[in-house]
Amino acid sequence: MRIPLLDFGRIAPEEKGRLEAAFRRVLESGQFILGEEVAAFERECADFLGVAHAIGVSSGTDALLLSLQALEIGPGDEVICPAYTFFATAGSIARVGAKPVFADSCPGCWNLSPQEVKRKLTPKTRAVIPVHLFGQPAAMTNLLAVGRENGIAVIEDAAQAFGASSDGQRVGGRGLLGCFSFFPTKNLGALGDAGLVTTQDGALAERIRALRVHGSRVKYRHEWIGGNFRIDALQAAFLRARLPSVEAALEGRRRNAELYEEAFLASGIAALCPEPCRCHGEERTAPKVASQLLLPRNTAGEHTWNQYVIRYPADRDGLRRFLSEEGVQSEVYYPLPLHRQPCFLDRDREVDELPVAELLARESLALPIFPGLSSEEIHRVVDLIVRFASKNGKEA
Questions:
Q1: What domains are there in the chain, each with its CATH number?
Q2: Cβ of 227: how many Cβ atoms within 10 Å?
């Protein structure tokens, strides 16, 4: 039985029909760049996310870049971000000429720790970019408080968390700016690249709309130096076709996460990650556990489970090879923390000691969790991991 990390072919017939209708609608309209299709998508996203403004852009990476440009962050500025996340977060900071300042993760939720942000603040800090990693909402209440106290902007990297919420609010609408990716693997995925910037600030929204078309609010008159960051009308139409199904898709992911947790805990080889989430006030000492496999926790809010990431300290890479041989696809998110990336290593930069980020990079493994996954497939994955861990435990 082959079990993929994600299967794009498992689309419900009604959703496939909406996608085909969207293609025909755009083709017949003759409007392929911006236009009413994009405007309608932006309105629908703004309603879903509970924000005043949603601006469709070319990718999640460009959403981050535009947000930094809109705030005029550049050379001489510092922006704090997590070391354990996808490269685009730090890469966008570097592209505007600012310095990414890497902070360690919270051991309980794996997100950017507010305490670490405070530790990394300097007079040059202009912004902080928390990432709602794997769909787990970051501690926005505490991070926003740090931002207010120190006069710095909070930009949410919600690339993996469309539909997540905390404290009764959708992520992406709590910081000064929110950034989403609609890469095909995301909870709401396009059939190509696309992204979104959200904000409650009308002046910022107007600036971002101009920056995505070369800094122009009036045709051929350029107030800022922007770029071509437009979302395609076709991708906007596809996303509109998929948006009505996103809640059901998220419920499918949450159901699959529960199935994994139940099956793993019943096996006797697994335990929930014991480390406290200090982001949310857990100051307890982590209990010692004898379990070989550590499971992710939903520490706060509504997790979207864009990825289901376990930790296997004994032999993560060996487990991944074994699963591949048995036809189960998995992925390592992320094998090298950002502060260790070659492009950020130079003579003028001291490499920070960020132990939690490095631990997660060594031990983490993402398993299939997409909505179309069957319970039989989930139990197959669990059985294989239990078999591998049991054998390893005896040999040890």
A1: 13-244 (3.40.640.10), 246-395 (3.90.1150.10)
A2: 15
